[in-house]
Design a protein that fits this description.
By secondary structure, this protein is mainly alpha-helical. Helices cover 62% and strands 4% of the residues. Strand 2, helix 11 and strand 3 form a beta-alpha-beta unit. The chain is elongated, with a radius of gyration of 25 Å.
Length: 399
């Protein structure tokens, strides 16, 4: 009987809060392994890791998730390449927020069986003996071993701790990041997808909450971009780098303003393209300000503009590309734009500006001429926001 009681209580006898701390520490190590090893190191090559932390992370993920590195990296790379399209493995814009939030792990498992995805996007992931024979070949064995360890150490309570460990990534990564991170939150950058930052304090999920920042600069090892944002994953990377266990390869460029250039030149062009997400974010903020003013002026001719929800809908359409709008949406937007030359001008010039860095076939000379023409028209438009935007772009500098 005493042996049975000892077995059920586990080798470690802790107060209730001790078990909570253990669960939080263990799950935190798991999310750190995901964000540093799987995400920033393997999927995006934003940093190089020394073999010691690299293999520790790989071993820990085998124990706590059973995830195969090649599968995770492949699916995530495809997500970036096909973001918000029908080929995106887990976009709430395609599948709906409910399905991605509650069934994100099922979408992951479905895509992991797509051999074409693994072949096309799985390059450069570990393919050594231990990966083939243990981590990939026996991925379930790790979580079984973790169950045994938790039970031996903590008894019956260890089963609960193990369950929390097993649910942590499916809920936080597959559900919260892949779901809410493309549906609700704030945006620092006008990236071409629906990614959002959920909170500015990226602690609970290792910094992954700063998802819009990540999509704007996918190969950056650092996910925080504003002074009030905190990426704990970056803190750990810096510690590893100080210890000689990691090498950061790339971080996001920090927008920097210098002395106003007298004319738009090639340096201006390069700076604008480098800081294009910051440029567009500032532009959209100006567009929103003008929209509020113009909607107030148009209330008499457009009764629906008295509806706050309708005004919010129009604002969303103003910052979307034309091809993303349905025929009825475009007709409704065109009706409003036809009544406001000021709003129509800043809307049209937004489309022209975003097209500037999307024309990959244009020569540097052609792009420069287009930017010069854009800035000339902006400064001659009589619209203060456009004039300020042009001057700002002429002040962007590359560190």
């Amino acid at each position: 009987m005493d042996i049975m009681i000892s077995l059920l209580s586990g080798a470690l006898d802790l107060p209730w809060w001790g078990y909570v701390v253990v669960a939080l520490v263990l799950t935190h190590i798991t999310i750190v392994s995901v964000t540093i090893f799987l995400h920033r190191h393997q999927a995006h090559r934003a940093l190089d890791l020394h073999p010691i932390p690299s293999h520790f992370f790989r071993f820990w993920l085998w124990l706590t998730t059973g995830q195969v590195t090649k599968e995770w990296a492949s699916i995530h790379r495809k997500h970036h390449a096909k973001c918000e399209t029908p080929d995106d493995p887990h976009s709430p814009q395609v599948y709906g927020i409910k399905k991605v939030f509650f069934e994100g792990s099922e979408l992951y498992r479905k895509e992991s069986k797509n051999l074409e995805t693994l072949e096309r996007y799985g390059h450069g992931t570990p393919d050594d003996w231990i990966e083939r024979k243990l981590y990939t070949g026996h991925s379930v064995s790790g979580v079984v071993l973790m169950f045994i360890i938790d039970f031996v150490l903590f008894g019956v309570t260890g089963i609960t701790i193990w369950a929390v460990q097993m649910l942590w990534i499916p809920v936080t990564a597959a559900g919260v990041i892949n779901g809410i991170g493309h549906y609700w939150g704030y945006r620092n950058f006008a990236s071409a997808d629906a990614s959002t930052n959920i909170v500015p304090w990226g602690i609970l999920i290792g910094g992954e909450e700063l998802h819009n920042n990540h999509h704007a600069f996918g190969t950056s090892a650092k996910l925080s971009n504003r002074w009030y944002e905190f990426d704990i994953g970056w803190l750990y990377i810096r510690i590893l780098e100080t210890l000689g266990l990691a090498t950061v390869k790339k971080v996001a460029p920090t927008p920097r303003l210098a002395e106003l250039r007298p004319a738009v030149d090639f340096e201006t062009l390069q700076a604008v393209i480098t800081h294009r997400y910051d440029v567009m974010a500032k532009y959209i903020k100006s567009l929103s300000q003008i929209a509020r003013e113009e909607f107030d002026h148009l209330k008499d001719s457009h009764a629906e503009l008295h509806d706050a929800n309708w005004r919010k809908t129009l604002k969303r359409w103003l910052v979307r590309d034309v091809e993303e709008l349905q025929a009825k949406e475009k007709a409704a937007l065109d009706s409003v734009l036809s009544k406001s030359s000021r709003l129509a001008t800043i809307y049209t010039m937004r489309l022209e500006l975003s097209a500037l860095w999307e024309r990959s076939t244009a020569s540097r000379e052609q792009l420069l001429k287009q930017l010069q023409d854009w800035c000339h028209r902006a400064e001659a438009s009589g619209i203060a926001q456009l004039q300020e935007m042009s001057l700002r772009m002429r002040s962007y500098a590359i560190a």
